[in-house]
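Quick start: what a row looks like.
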Amino acid sequence: MNTNRRNFIQTMGAGAAGIGLASGISLGASRPGQNAPSNDDQVLFIGDDTAIADTVYGKVQGFVLRDIYQFRGIPYGADTSGKNRFMPPRQPEPWSDVRPAVWWGNTAPQIMDNRYANPWYSFADHWNYDDVSEDCLRLNVWTPALADGGKRPVMVWYHGGGYRNGNGIEQDGYMGENLSRKGDIVFVSINHRLGPIGFSDLSGVGGEAYQHSGNVGALDMVAALEWVSQNIANFGGDPNNVTIMGQSGGGSKVCTLAAMPATRGLIHKAVPLSGSSTSALDQEYSQKLGSYILKEAGLQAGEIGKLQEMAWKDYILLAGRAQETMEKENPGGGGFRGGFRPVADGVHIPKGTFYSEASGVSSDVPMLICSTFHEWGMSRTNPELEKIDAAGAKKMLADQAGFRGGFGDKAAEIYDAYAKAFPNAKPIEIMCLVSSNRKSVVETANAKSAQPAPVYVAWFGWEPPLFNNRMRAFHCLDICFWFYNTDLMLTHTGGGSRPRALAEKMSDGLLQFMRTGNPNGGDLPEWAAYTPERGETMILDDHCELLDDPDRQARQTLP
Protein backbone atom coordinates (compact mmCIF):
# COMPACT_ATOMS: atom_id res chain seq x y z
CA MET A 1 0.00 0.00 0.00
CA ASN A 2 1.31 3.42 -0.92
CA THR A 3 -0.32 6.33 0.89
CA ASN A 4 2.45 8.83 0.17
CA ARG A 5 1.07 12.28 -0.61
CA ARG A 6 4.26 14.03 -1.59
CA ASN A 7 6.56 13.70 -4.54
CA PHE A 8 10.29 14.14 -4.62
CA ILE A 9 10.22 17.72 -5.86
CA GLN A 10 7.83 18.82 -3.11
CA THR A 11 10.05 17.43 -0.37
CA MET A 12 12.98 19.41 -1.71
CA GLY A 13 11.41 22.41 0.03
CA ALA A 14 11.59 20.84 3.47
CA GLY A 15 14.23 23.14 4.96
CA ALA A 16 12.34 26.41 4.93
CA ALA A 17 13.30 27.57 8.40
CA GLY A 18 16.97 27.94 7.55
CA ILE A 19 16.89 28.94 3.89
CA GLY A 20 18.00 32.50 4.48
CA LEU A 21 20.91 31.56 6.76
CA ALA A 22 24.46 31.54 5.43
CA SER A 23 26.00 28.20 6.28
CA GLY A 24 29.64 28.63 5.38
CA ILE A 25 29.97 24.83 5.19
CA SER A 26 32.34 23.29 2.63
CA LEU A 27 30.99 20.29 0.77
CA GLY A 28 34.37 19.01 -0.34
CA ALA A 29 35.00 16.56 -3.15
CA SER A 30 31.54 15.04 -3.32
CA ARG A 31 29.95 18.17 -4.76
CA PRO A 32 29.35 18.30 -8.57
CA GLY A 33 32.41 18.64 -10.78
CA GLN A 34 34.22 21.94 -11.20
CA ASN A 35 33.39 22.03 -14.92
CA ALA A 36 29.68 22.42 -14.21
CA PRO A 37 28.20 25.78 -15.24
CA SER A 38 28.20 28.33 -12.43
CA ASN A 39 24.78 28.73 -10.86
CA ASP A 40 24.81 30.56 -7.55
CA ASP A 41 21.06 30.01 -7.12
CA GLN A 42 21.12 26.23 -7.43
CA VAL A 43 20.24 24.50 -4.15
CA LEU A 44 19.87 20.82 -5.16
CA PHE A 45 22.83 18.77 -6.39
CA ILE A 46 22.49 15.17 -7.51
CA GLY A 47 24.59 13.24 -9.97
CA ASP A 48 26.91 10.32 -10.64
CA ASP A 49 29.75 11.66 -8.49
CA THR A 50 27.68 13.48 -5.88
CA ALA A 51 27.06 12.53 -2.22
CA ILE A 52 28.59 9.06 -2.15
CA ALA A 53 29.36 7.62 1.28
CA ASP A 54 30.80 4.34 2.53
CA THR A 55 29.05 1.99 4.94
CA VAL A 56 30.26 -1.39 6.19
CA TYR A 57 27.73 -3.00 3.81
CA GLY A 58 28.51 -0.98 0.69
CA LYS A 59 28.43 2.49 -0.79
CA VAL A 60 25.28 4.65 -0.74
CA GLN A 61 24.44 7.70 -2.80
CA GLY A 62 22.27 10.58 -1.66
CA PHE A 63 22.04 14.21 -2.71
CA VAL A 64 22.95 17.67 -1.49
CA LEU A 65 20.18 20.13 -0.67
CA ARG A 66 20.97 23.62 0.59
CA ASP A 67 24.51 22.54 1.55
CA ILE A 68 23.31 19.56 3.61
CA TYR A 69 23.85 15.99 2.47
CA GLN A 70 20.75 13.78 2.66
CA PHE A 71 20.64 10.00 2.56
CA ARG A 72 17.25 8.32 2.72
CA GLY A 73 16.29 4.72 3.37
CA ILE A 74 19.74 3.23 4.15
CA PRO A 75 19.37 -0.39 5.32
CA TYR A 76 20.63 -1.12 8.83
CA GLY A 77 18.99 -4.56 8.97
CA ALA A 78 17.66 -7.30 6.73
CA ASP A 79 14.06 -7.91 5.67
CA THR A 80 12.11 -9.04 8.77
CA SER A 81 9.39 -11.01 6.97
CA GLY A 82 8.89 -14.76 6.82
CA LYS A 83 11.27 -16.74 9.02
CA ASN A 84 12.76 -13.46 10.29
CA ARG A 85 9.45 -12.40 11.84
CA PHE A 86 9.63 -12.53 15.67
CA MET A 87 13.42 -12.89 15.40
CA PRO A 88 16.20 -10.44 16.37
CA PRO A 89 17.31 -8.22 13.50
CA ARG A 90 19.86 -9.62 11.07
CA GLN A 91 22.49 -7.60 9.27
CA PRO A 92 21.62 -6.55 5.72
CA GLU A 93 23.25 -8.38 2.84
CA PRO A 94 26.25 -6.39 1.54
CA TRP A 95 25.95 -4.84 -1.92
CA SER A 96 28.61 -4.20 -4.55
CA ASP A 97 27.05 -1.42 -6.61
CA VAL A 98 26.43 2.08 -5.30
CA ARG A 99 23.00 1.90 -3.66
CA PRO A 100 20.59 4.80 -4.22
CA ALA A 101 19.61 6.42 -0.92
CA VAL A 102 17.37 9.16 -2.28
CA TRP A 103 13.95 8.06 -1.01
CA TRP A 104 12.53 7.10 2.35
CA GLY A 105 12.55 3.50 3.50
CA ASN A 106 9.40 1.48 4.01
CA THR A 107 7.18 2.25 6.98
CA ALA A 108 6.90 -0.62 9.48
CA PRO A 109 3.71 -2.72 9.26
CA GLN A 110 0.77 -0.98 10.91
CA ILE A 111 -2.91 -0.57 10.17
CA MET A 112 -3.21 2.27 7.65
CA ASP A 113 -6.98 2.08 7.14
CA ASN A 114 -8.62 5.48 7.69
CA ARG A 115 -5.28 7.07 8.64
CA TYR A 116 -6.46 10.30 7.01
CA ALA A 117 -10.14 9.97 7.90
CA ASN A 118 -10.30 13.13 10.06
CA PRO A 119 -9.68 16.10 7.72
CA TRP A 120 -8.80 18.49 10.55
CA TYR A 121 -6.15 16.24 12.05
CA SER A 122 -4.89 15.43 8.56
CA PHE A 123 -4.49 19.14 7.87
CA ALA A 124 -2.81 19.96 11.19
CA ASP A 125 -0.45 16.97 11.33
CA HIS A 126 -0.28 15.97 7.61
CA TRP A 127 1.32 12.62 8.37
CA ASN A 128 3.87 11.36 5.85
CA TYR A 129 3.65 7.65 5.05
CA ASP A 130 5.17 5.66 2.22
CA ASP A 131 5.08 1.96 1.35
CA VAL A 132 4.37 -0.32 4.32
CA SER A 133 6.48 -3.47 4.47
CA GLU A 134 8.32 -5.80 6.84
CA ASP A 135 11.47 -4.81 4.94
CA CYS A 136 11.48 -1.66 7.07
CA LEU A 137 14.81 -1.49 8.91
CA ARG A 138 15.88 1.74 7.28
CA LEU A 139 17.39 5.01 8.45
CA ASN A 140 17.92 8.53 7.10
CA VAL A 141 20.93 10.80 7.53
CA TRP A 142 21.39 14.57 7.27
CA THR A 143 24.95 15.89 7.56
CA PRO A 144 27.01 18.95 6.59
CA ALA A 145 30.00 16.88 5.37
CA LEU A 146 31.25 13.37 4.62
CA ALA A 147 34.25 11.55 6.10
CA ASP A 148 36.09 14.79 6.94
CA GLY A 149 37.10 13.75 10.47
CA GLY A 150 34.74 16.41 11.82
CA LYS A 151 33.52 14.35 14.79
CA ARG A 152 30.18 16.15 14.88
CA PRO A 153 27.62 15.40 17.60
CA VAL A 154 25.06 12.85 16.40
CA MET A 155 21.30 12.94 16.96
CA VAL A 156 19.32 9.70 16.60
CA TRP A 157 15.56 10.34 16.47
CA TYR A 158 12.93 7.76 17.52
CA HIS A 159 9.44 8.53 16.28
CA GLY A 160 6.24 8.49 18.30
CA GLY A 161 3.12 6.44 17.79
CA GLY A 162 2.84 4.47 21.02
CA TYR A 163 4.87 1.47 19.74
CA ARG A 164 2.10 0.77 17.24
CA ASN A 165 2.27 3.51 14.60
CA GLY A 166 4.54 6.05 12.98
CA ASN A 167 7.78 6.32 11.04
CA GLY A 168 10.95 8.37 11.09
CA ILE A 169 9.61 11.16 8.85
CA GLU A 170 5.89 11.09 9.64
CA GLN A 171 5.81 14.82 10.38
CA ASP A 172 7.68 17.57 8.54
CA GLY A 173 8.87 18.72 11.96
CA TYR A 174 10.98 15.54 12.16
CA MET A 175 13.25 16.60 9.28
CA GLY A 176 16.88 17.01 10.28
CA GLU A 177 18.14 19.48 7.69
CA ASN A 178 17.77 22.69 9.68
CA LEU A 179 19.23 21.39 12.94
CA SER A 180 22.12 19.82 11.04
CA ARG A 181 22.93 23.13 9.39
CA LYS A 182 22.37 25.29 12.47
CA GLY A 183 24.47 23.21 14.83
CA ASP A 184 26.90 21.46 12.47
CA ILE A 185 25.61 18.08 13.65
CA VAL A 186 24.64 14.75 12.07
CA PHE A 187 20.95 13.85 12.30
CA VAL A 188 19.66 10.28 11.96
CA SER A 189 16.05 9.04 12.01
CA ILE A 190 14.95 5.41 11.85
CA ASN A 191 12.10 3.02 11.18
CA HIS A 192 11.77 -0.18 13.22
CA ARG A 193 9.26 -2.95 13.85
CA LEU A 194 6.12 -1.92 15.73
CA GLY A 195 3.06 -3.38 17.41
CA PRO A 196 2.44 -7.14 17.25
CA ILE A 197 5.14 -7.56 14.59
CA GLY A 198 7.74 -6.05 16.91
CA PHE A 199 6.51 -7.02 20.37
CA SER A 200 4.66 -10.35 20.39
CA ASP A 201 6.10 -12.33 23.29
CA LEU A 202 5.84 -15.95 22.19
CA SER A 203 8.57 -17.12 24.56
CA GLY A 204 6.07 -18.71 26.94
CA VAL A 205 4.49 -20.89 24.26
CA GLY A 206 7.38 -21.23 21.82
CA GLY A 207 10.31 -21.73 24.16
CA GLU A 208 13.94 -20.95 23.33
CA ALA A 209 13.35 -20.50 19.60
CA TYR A 210 11.17 -17.47 20.35
CA GLN A 211 12.92 -16.25 23.49
CA HIS A 212 13.59 -12.79 21.99
CA SER A 213 10.24 -12.32 20.23
CA GLY A 214 8.75 -9.92 22.78
CA ASN A 215 11.54 -7.40 22.24
CA VAL A 216 12.59 -7.60 18.59
CA GLY A 217 11.31 -4.07 17.96
CA ALA A 218 13.55 -2.80 20.76
CA LEU A 219 16.45 -4.86 19.39
CA ASP A 220 15.91 -3.13 16.03
CA MET A 221 16.46 0.20 17.79
CA VAL A 222 19.68 -1.13 19.29
CA ALA A 223 20.78 -2.37 15.87
CA ALA A 224 20.33 1.15 14.50
CA LEU A 225 22.62 2.47 17.24
CA GLU A 226 25.17 -0.21 16.36
CA TRP A 227 25.00 0.93 12.73
CA VAL A 228 25.63 4.50 13.89
CA SER A 229 28.62 3.37 15.91
CA GLN A 230 30.10 1.52 12.93
CA ASN A 231 29.31 3.98 10.15
CA ILE A 232 28.61 7.51 11.32
CA ALA A 233 32.24 8.67 11.04
CA ASN A 234 31.85 8.19 7.26
CA PHE A 235 29.04 10.76 7.47
CA GLY A 236 31.11 13.27 9.46
CA GLY A 237 29.79 12.23 12.89
CA ASP A 238 31.34 11.22 16.19
CA PRO A 239 30.31 7.72 17.31
CA ASN A 240 31.40 8.67 20.82
CA ASN A 241 28.92 11.54 21.10
CA VAL A 242 25.46 10.18 20.29
CA THR A 243 22.25 11.72 21.64
CA ILE A 244 19.03 9.71 21.40
CA MET A 245 15.77 11.63 21.34
CA GLY A 246 12.12 10.70 20.88
CA GLN A 247 8.63 11.99 21.51
CA SER A 248 5.52 10.28 22.95
CA GLY A 249 6.10 6.57 22.27
CA GLY A 250 9.53 7.69 21.08
CA GLY A 251 10.19 9.24 24.49
CA SER A 252 9.39 5.90 26.09
CA LYS A 253 11.75 4.25 23.60
CA VAL A 254 14.53 6.61 24.70
CA CYS A 255 13.98 5.76 28.37
CA THR A 256 13.91 2.05 27.59
CA LEU A 257 17.04 2.14 25.42
CA ALA A 258 18.88 4.03 28.16
CA ALA A 259 18.15 1.10 30.49
CA MET A 260 19.18 -1.71 28.11
CA PRO A 261 22.59 -3.32 28.75
CA ALA A 262 23.22 -3.64 24.99
CA THR A 263 23.33 0.16 24.58
CA ARG A 264 26.20 0.74 26.99
CA GLY A 265 28.74 2.86 25.13
CA LEU A 266 26.33 3.53 22.24
CA ILE A 267 24.36 6.31 23.98
CA HIS A 268 25.89 9.42 25.52
CA LYS A 269 22.89 11.72 26.08
CA ALA A 270 19.13 11.09 26.17
CA VAL A 271 16.13 13.36 25.50
CA PRO A 272 12.63 11.92 26.07
CA LEU A 273 9.75 14.23 25.13
CA SER A 274 6.15 13.70 26.29
CA GLY A 275 6.63 10.01 26.92
CA SER A 276 9.05 9.31 29.72
CA SER A 277 8.86 5.96 31.50
CA THR A 278 10.62 3.97 34.20
CA SER A 279 9.60 0.39 33.49
CA ALA A 280 8.71 -2.05 30.74
CA LEU A 281 5.81 -4.47 30.36
CA ASP A 282 5.62 -7.26 32.92
CA GLN A 283 6.58 -10.53 31.24
CA GLU A 284 3.89 -12.53 32.96
CA TYR A 285 1.38 -10.38 31.08
CA SER A 286 3.26 -10.45 27.76
CA GLN A 287 3.66 -14.23 27.80
CA LYS A 288 0.00 -14.68 28.65
CA LEU A 289 -0.88 -12.47 25.70
CA GLY A 290 1.31 -14.73 23.57
CA SER A 291 -0.80 -17.71 24.59
CA TYR A 292 -3.97 -15.81 23.67
CA ILE A 293 -2.48 -15.12 20.22
CA LEU A 294 -1.90 -18.81 19.68
CA LYS A 295 -5.42 -19.60 20.86
CA GLU A 296 -6.92 -16.94 18.56
CA ALA A 297 -5.03 -18.49 15.66
CA GLY A 298 -6.22 -22.00 16.57
CA LEU A 299 -2.64 -23.29 16.69
CA GLN A 300 -0.66 -25.56 18.97
CA ALA A 301 2.76 -24.65 20.38
CA GLY A 302 4.54 -26.63 17.65
CA GLU A 303 2.75 -24.65 14.94
CA ILE A 304 3.95 -21.13 15.76
CA GLY A 305 5.82 -21.08 12.47
CA LYS A 306 2.46 -20.68 10.72
CA LEU A 307 2.20 -17.20 12.27
CA GLN A 308 5.33 -16.28 10.31
CA GLU A 309 3.60 -17.30 7.09
CA MET A 310 0.58 -15.03 7.55
CA ALA A 311 0.29 -11.73 5.70
CA TRP A 312 1.45 -9.03 8.11
CA LYS A 313 -1.92 -7.27 8.19
CA ASP A 314 -3.76 -10.52 8.95
CA TYR A 315 -1.36 -11.19 11.81
CA ILE A 316 -1.71 -7.69 13.28
CA LEU A 317 -5.51 -7.99 13.20
CA LEU A 318 -5.37 -11.45 14.76
CA ALA A 319 -3.07 -10.26 17.53
CA GLY A 320 -5.36 -7.30 18.14
CA ARG A 321 -8.33 -9.61 18.59
CA ALA A 322 -6.30 -11.70 21.01
CA GLN A 323 -5.48 -8.63 23.08
CA GLU A 324 -9.14 -7.55 23.13
CA THR A 325 -10.15 -10.97 24.42
CA MET A 326 -7.43 -10.96 27.05
CA GLU A 327 -8.33 -7.45 28.21
CA LYS A 328 -11.95 -8.48 28.66
CA GLU A 329 -10.89 -11.43 30.77
CA ASN A 330 -7.94 -9.69 32.50
CA PRO A 331 -8.66 -5.93 32.42
CA GLY A 332 -5.94 -3.33 32.91
CA GLY A 333 -2.84 -5.49 32.75
CA GLY A 334 -1.42 -3.98 29.58
CA GLY A 335 -1.28 -0.47 30.96
CA PHE A 336 -1.59 2.78 29.07
CA ARG A 337 0.34 1.64 25.99
CA GLY A 338 -1.20 -1.83 25.73
CA GLY A 339 0.41 -5.23 25.48
CA PHE A 340 2.62 -4.81 22.41
CA ARG A 341 5.60 -2.90 23.72
CA PRO A 342 9.01 -3.63 25.25
CA VAL A 343 9.01 -6.48 27.76
CA ALA A 344 10.93 -6.59 31.04
CA ASP A 345 12.49 -9.98 30.33
CA GLY A 346 15.48 -9.49 32.62
CA VAL A 347 17.82 -10.13 29.68
CA HIS A 348 17.43 -7.36 27.13
CA ILE A 349 15.41 -5.06 29.38
CA PRO A 350 15.66 -5.02 33.18
CA LYS A 351 12.80 -5.97 35.44
CA GLY A 352 11.66 -3.40 37.99
CA THR A 353 12.38 0.33 37.89
CA PHE A 354 14.86 1.69 35.36
CA TYR A 355 18.03 3.47 36.59
CA SER A 356 17.81 1.81 40.02
CA GLU A 357 21.54 1.19 40.17
CA ALA A 358 23.74 4.21 40.82
CA SER A 359 26.43 2.74 38.57
CA GLY A 360 23.98 1.16 36.10
CA VAL A 361 23.89 1.16 32.31
CA SER A 362 23.21 4.88 31.80
CA SER A 363 24.69 6.25 35.00
CA ASP A 364 26.98 8.54 32.98
CA VAL A 365 24.28 9.58 30.46
CA PRO A 366 22.75 13.04 31.07
CA MET A 367 19.02 13.29 30.38
CA LEU A 368 16.82 16.20 29.31
CA ILE A 369 13.08 15.55 29.82
CA CYS A 370 10.28 17.71 28.42
CA SER A 371 6.49 17.58 28.26
CA THR A 372 3.84 20.07 27.15
CA PHE A 373 1.22 21.86 29.22
CA HIS A 374 -1.73 20.58 27.20
CA GLU A 375 -0.68 17.20 25.80
CA TRP A 376 -4.29 16.21 25.36
CA GLY A 377 -5.91 19.32 23.85
CA MET A 378 -9.53 18.25 24.09
CA SER A 379 -11.14 21.25 22.42
CA ARG A 380 -8.85 21.37 19.39
CA THR A 381 -11.57 19.89 17.17
CA ASN A 382 -14.48 20.42 19.58
CA PRO A 383 -15.18 24.17 20.01
CA GLU A 384 -18.10 23.49 22.37
CA LEU A 385 -15.68 22.40 25.11
CA GLU A 386 -14.40 25.97 25.32
CA LYS A 387 -17.69 26.82 27.03
CA ILE A 388 -17.49 24.14 29.70
CA ASP A 389 -17.75 25.34 33.31
CA ALA A 390 -16.00 23.98 36.40
CA ALA A 391 -18.84 21.62 37.29
CA GLY A 392 -18.88 20.17 33.79
CA ALA A 393 -15.11 19.82 33.77
CA LYS A 394 -15.14 17.94 37.06
CA LYS A 395 -17.77 15.58 35.74
CA MET A 396 -15.77 14.89 32.61
CA LEU A 397 -12.58 14.27 34.60
CA ALA A 398 -14.43 11.82 36.80
CA ASP A 399 -15.19 9.71 33.73
CA GLN A 400 -12.15 10.23 31.50
CA ALA A 401 -8.74 11.93 31.70
CA GLY A 402 -6.98 11.95 28.34
CA PHE A 403 -6.29 8.39 27.16
CA ARG A 404 -6.57 7.07 30.69
CA GLY A 405 -9.58 6.31 32.84
CA GLY A 406 -11.21 9.01 34.90
CA PHE A 407 -10.51 10.03 38.50
CA GLY A 408 -13.92 9.16 39.90
CA ASP A 409 -14.66 10.68 43.30
CA LYS A 410 -11.24 12.41 43.39
CA ALA A 411 -11.94 14.47 40.24
CA ALA A 412 -13.26 17.53 42.09
CA GLU A 413 -10.34 17.61 44.53
CA ILE A 414 -7.83 17.29 41.70
CA TYR A 415 -9.55 19.93 39.59
CA ASP A 416 -9.62 22.41 42.50
CA ALA A 417 -5.93 21.81 43.23
CA TYR A 418 -4.94 22.57 39.63
CA ALA A 419 -7.26 25.58 39.54
CA LYS A 420 -5.45 26.92 42.60
CA ALA A 421 -2.05 26.33 41.02
CA PHE A 422 -3.14 27.97 37.76
CA PRO A 423 -5.63 30.67 38.81
CA ASN A 424 -5.83 32.28 35.35
CA ALA A 425 -6.66 29.05 33.53
CA LYS A 426 -10.13 28.42 32.07
CA PRO A 427 -11.99 25.20 32.97
CA ILE A 428 -11.06 23.63 29.62
CA GLU A 429 -7.41 24.46 30.31
CA ILE A 430 -7.59 22.96 33.80
CA MET A 431 -8.99 19.78 32.25
CA CYS A 432 -6.09 19.67 29.80
CA LEU A 433 -3.51 20.29 32.53
CA VAL A 434 -4.95 17.51 34.68
CA SER A 435 -5.17 15.04 31.79
CA SER A 436 -1.62 16.02 30.73
CA ASN A 437 -0.17 15.93 34.23
CA ARG A 438 3.57 15.59 34.79
CA LYS A 439 3.44 12.58 37.11
CA SER A 440 5.47 10.30 34.81
CA VAL A 441 7.92 13.10 33.99
CA VAL A 442 8.69 13.63 37.67
CA GLU A 443 8.91 9.88 38.35
CA THR A 444 11.45 9.52 35.54
CA ALA A 445 13.42 12.58 36.65
CA ASN A 446 13.51 11.33 40.25
CA ALA A 447 14.67 7.86 39.19
CA LYS A 448 17.35 9.12 36.79
CA SER A 449 18.63 11.80 39.19
CA ALA A 450 19.70 9.04 41.58
CA GLN A 451 22.49 8.34 39.12
CA PRO A 452 25.55 10.64 38.83
CA ALA A 453 24.77 12.20 35.43
CA PRO A 454 22.63 15.37 35.56
CA VAL A 455 18.95 15.57 34.62
CA TYR A 456 17.28 18.66 33.18
CA VAL A 457 13.50 19.12 33.08
CA ALA A 458 11.46 21.42 30.85
CA TRP A 459 7.74 22.17 30.49
CA PHE A 460 6.60 23.59 27.14
CA GLY A 461 3.75 26.08 27.29
CA TRP A 462 3.88 28.03 23.99
CA GLU A 463 0.51 28.21 22.22
CA PRO A 464 -0.03 28.75 18.47
CA PRO A 465 -2.56 31.30 17.16
CA LEU A 466 -4.43 28.64 15.16
CA PHE A 467 -7.90 27.09 15.32
CA ASN A 468 -9.18 30.10 17.30
CA ASN A 469 -6.39 29.51 19.84
CA ARG A 470 -7.77 26.07 20.76
CA MET A 471 -4.64 24.07 19.93
CA ARG A 472 -2.74 25.31 22.99
CA ALA A 473 0.58 23.61 23.92
CA PHE A 474 -0.51 20.28 22.46
CA HIS A 475 1.16 16.88 22.16
CA CYS A 476 3.91 16.99 19.45
CA LEU A 477 4.07 20.80 19.23
CA ASP A 478 7.51 21.21 20.82
CA ILE A 479 9.30 18.89 18.37
CA CYS A 480 9.63 21.48 15.61
CA PHE A 481 10.99 24.03 18.13
CA TRP A 482 13.77 21.71 19.28
CA PHE A 483 14.67 20.94 15.65
CA TYR A 484 14.42 24.56 14.42
CA ASN A 485 11.57 23.65 12.07
CA THR A 486 8.87 26.13 13.11
CA ASP A 487 8.79 27.68 9.62
CA LEU A 488 8.48 24.21 8.16
CA MET A 489 5.78 22.71 10.41
CA LEU A 490 3.46 25.63 9.67
CA THR A 491 0.25 23.83 10.60
CA HIS A 492 1.58 23.53 14.15
CA THR A 493 3.04 27.01 14.59
CA GLY A 494 1.67 29.37 11.96
CA GLY A 495 5.26 30.31 11.16
CA GLY A 496 6.94 33.67 11.52
CA SER A 497 9.16 35.46 13.99
CA ARG A 498 7.29 34.63 17.21
CA PRO A 499 7.74 30.83 17.15
CA ARG A 500 11.13 31.23 15.51
CA ALA A 501 12.41 33.26 18.46
CA LEU A 502 11.62 30.43 20.88
CA ALA A 503 12.94 27.84 18.41
CA GLU A 504 16.28 29.69 18.37
CA LYS A 505 16.57 29.36 22.14
CA MET A 506 15.35 25.77 22.37
CA SER A 507 17.43 24.44 19.48
CA ASP A 508 20.51 26.21 20.86
CA GLY A 509 19.88 24.59 24.24
CA LEU A 510 19.48 21.18 22.61
CA LEU A 511 22.68 21.64 20.59
CA GLN A 512 24.59 22.62 23.72
CA PHE A 513 23.23 19.55 25.47
CA MET A 514 24.31 17.35 22.56
CA ARG A 515 27.82 18.78 22.68
CA THR A 516 28.39 18.88 26.43
CA GLY A 517 25.53 17.24 28.35
CA ASN A 518 24.51 20.68 29.65
CA PRO A 519 21.91 22.90 27.88
CA ASN A 520 23.35 26.17 29.21
CA GLY A 521 25.32 28.64 27.13
CA GLY A 522 22.61 30.11 24.88
CA ASP A 523 19.80 32.61 25.37
CA LEU A 524 17.68 30.54 27.75
CA PRO A 525 17.85 31.54 31.43
CA GLU A 526 20.38 29.70 33.55
CA TRP A 527 19.10 26.13 33.67
CA ALA A 528 19.86 24.34 36.92
CA ALA A 529 19.97 20.56 36.96
CA TYR A 530 16.89 18.88 38.43
CA THR A 531 16.80 17.74 42.04
CA PRO A 532 13.91 15.90 43.70
CA GLU A 533 13.96 18.42 46.54
CA ARG A 534 13.35 21.50 44.40
CA GLY A 535 12.05 20.06 41.13
CA GLU A 536 13.78 22.67 38.96
CA THR A 537 11.77 23.07 35.75
CA MET A 538 12.44 25.32 32.74
CA ILE A 539 9.21 26.86 31.43
CA LEU A 540 9.47 27.20 27.64
CA ASP A 541 7.27 29.98 26.26
CA ASP A 542 7.58 33.45 24.76
CA HIS A 543 9.07 34.30 28.15
CA CYS A 544 11.21 31.45 29.51
CA GLU A 545 11.95 31.04 33.21
CA LEU A 546 13.22 28.45 35.64
CA LEU A 547 10.73 27.56 38.38
CA ASP A 548 10.81 25.17 41.30
CA ASP A 549 8.25 22.40 40.64
CA PRO A 550 5.36 24.74 39.77
CA ASP A 551 2.62 22.09 39.94
CA ARG A 552 3.87 20.01 42.89
CA GLN A 553 0.95 20.59 45.27
CA ALA A 554 -1.63 20.03 42.54
CA ARG A 555 0.17 16.92 41.29
CA GLN A 556 0.23 15.44 44.79
CA THR A 557 -3.56 15.09 44.66
CA LEU A 558 -3.30 12.62 41.76
CA PRO A 559 -3.83 8.94 42.60
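That is the whole record. The first helix runs from residue 8 to 11. The CA atoms of residues 155 and 187 lie 5 Å apart.
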